[in-house]
Amino acid sequence: MTLPDNCEKPKPMPEPQEERNSSHYPVANLLSRIDFGALSVAIIWGINNVTQKFLLDTFTPSALQCLRGVVAGVSLLALVVALGRNLRAALSASLGYLLGAGLMMGVQMLAFFYALKLTYASEGSLLISTAPVWTTVIVAATRIEVIYPRNWLGILVALGGVAMVVLGATSVGTGSAPHRITGDLIMISSAFLYGLYMVLSRPLMQRHGSLTVTAVALFFSNVIVLPLGLHQLINAPWRDLTSLHWALLAFAIFAGMVYGMGMWYRSINMHGAARTAVYQYLVPLVAVGAAVVFLHEHPTPWQLAGIAVTLYGTYLAHHRPPESLPA
Fold it and tell me: Buried b vs exposed e over 165-182: b needs ≥16 C-beta within 10 Å?
């Protein structure tokens, strides 16, 4: 059948915008998939581990966490209020649980800084990143969630990678770390405590929001940290601090904690936990690179292989197959 001469011929259907973007603008399409907020946090957190290692040459672990906990805790609470979150309702409804979460966070952070003092920044950054592995172990032991064979395989792979990193060399840098193994074991304990904190605080985060719970817990962590670190903080060599020390302190507190926590949970709210969590695997990689450049650490090939194995195992342990995710 033919159309009359005075009848307008139908126009071809336009190509879907998404397909045109994919085919004609591949770079723009790739950039649109990157969460630059989460990416910036991963880079900052990786550098921050090296920053804090440098600061531990001047401050004791308790003093550094005392300063960081007070300033960052108050700043995060102010951010929560500025964002219009109902902080008073959270405190009145779950004060005891939030206090318990804060106490656990305080112990975990103290363990982290004492471990970082004893070991190398590159190793410490990798070991603390195994927290999702311990989260999976805990939820499996308590039967909170179903754990699949690939998750169990990931746990075994990650632990094997950790062994490769810890036992891969007796010295990885120009500096001396005679208590490196002790520091590594304490760092693994810190990662376990952080995994336990994430499991126990999950109901609180679902009820009050992740940023609110984190801010309150960090503030309450000072209940443990202040008695241990306040005297050491007061007696720190303040007169010997250079402009570099002050700049690194500001970076560790405001970039690493306030901006990092705020932007990380914003990314989770905007893009989902699964997509945001991918960026956490960049943290130890950035930390290793920064440790090589700024602290002159030199991981051995065996340890570098262990880092790759650990990250892959952590990914397998932490992620469930798509069919197991709720619709």
Answer: bbebbeebbeeebeebee
The answer to whether 116 and 124 have CB atoms below 8 angstroms apart is yes
Alpha-helical runs (H) found in 142-281: 149-167, 180-208, 210-220, 222-234, 243-250, 260-271, 273-277
> Residue 147 — left, alpha, or beta (φ > 0 → left; ψ -120 to 50 → alpha)?
beta
What does the domain layout of the chain look like in residue ranges? 37-321
Is 118:182 a contact under the CB 8 Å cutoff?
Answer: yes
Distance CA 242, CA 239 (A): 8
Tens of pLDDT, residues 222-271: 999 999 999 999 999 999 999 999 999 999 999 999 999 999 888 888 87
| End-to-end Cα spacing for the chain | 48
325 HSE (CA, 13 A, CB side): 9
| Residue 318 · residue 145 · CB < 8 Å | no
Specify whether the CB–CB gap between 284 and 123 falls below 8 A.
Answer: no
Residue 270 CA to its chain's centroid (Å): 17
Give the Cα separation of 215 and 41 in Å (integer). Answer: 17
Four-residue CA torsion sign, 256, 257, 263, 268: positive
Place of tokens 């632990």: 159
The alpha carbon of 74 is separated from its chain's Cα centroid by a whole number of angstroms, namely 20
| pLDDT tens for each residue of 173-213 | 445 566 888 999 999 999 999 999 999 999 999 999 999 99
DSSP 183-206: HHHHHHHHHHHHHHHHHHHHHHHH
In the structure encoding, which two tokens stand for residue 196, read together?
């336990």
Residue 297 β-bridge partners? 173
For 147-169, how does the pLDDT look when each residue is reduced to its tens digit (9 = 90+)? 888 888 999 999 999 988 888 76
Place of tokens 């036992």: 167
Amino acid at 168: G
